[in-house]
Amino acid sequence: MGHWLQRNIVEPGKLPLLLALASFVLTFLAPRTVTRLIRAGKGPFGNVETGGLHIHHVVPGVILTVVGGFGAVAGGLHGFGPALGAVVFGVGAGLVLDEFALILHLDDVYWTEAGRQSVEVVVLTAALVGLVLAGFSPFGVDDLSEDELQNRAGVALNVTGNFLFSLVALSKGKARIAVFGVIVPVVAVIGALRLARPGSPWSRRFYRRRPRARAKAVLRAYRHDLRWSAPRRAVQDWIGGKPDPDPPRPPERG
């Protein structure tokens, strides 16, 4: 284990990234656990308030992210500066992204259906950093030979092509595939070749006069969501807690 860590993490200079990822994941889990206990009325925990103002943990998260980011940059390439800065940055990022939905909606939606977006962003971020840590480089150009490294035109073409595939996947309403496709090229190609999701820019532009393609896209999206929405929600509930049910809507007056 020590030899593997030295060869694959320390020597390539990935130790700060590993520390940032570990502190990011652990920090996300810590406030989620505490807030779930507060929600259930268990433990000695409570909301942080001052002068009647509820201080969300995104506030110290922003401060730690700024301090850790600048600290890592100012620490140079040697010593404990980059490692310490990476840990502080990971802690801050975990606190911030745990309340990503609150920032997006500018409202306390932590335990609502919209709050699931925080869990999605955290999982996506951790997965992408994990891929980079595992050895993948953006655009899939990390395994080039010496001759390929000298062929800058080929590298640029590879990068540009994969970026375009990711853009096509994004325009087809496949945001997750587009993001992962930046790191894993085959994912971008698959996302670019498959049918667009209904309502996506690609669908509105190219399926407008193709009713068969539009109907096929709607049917495929329905089947995909029917198959994967329940497992995805179950995983999100297990990681971040189940949202509160929506309040009943008042009856409409005739």
Automatic annotation (TrEMBL):
Keywords: Membrane, Transmembrane, Transmembrane helix. The chain crosses the membrane at residues 15-34, 55-77, 83-106, 118-141, 153-170, 177-196. The keyword Transmembrane helix applies. The keyword Membrane applies. This is Integral membrane protein. It comes from Streptomyces prasinopilosus.
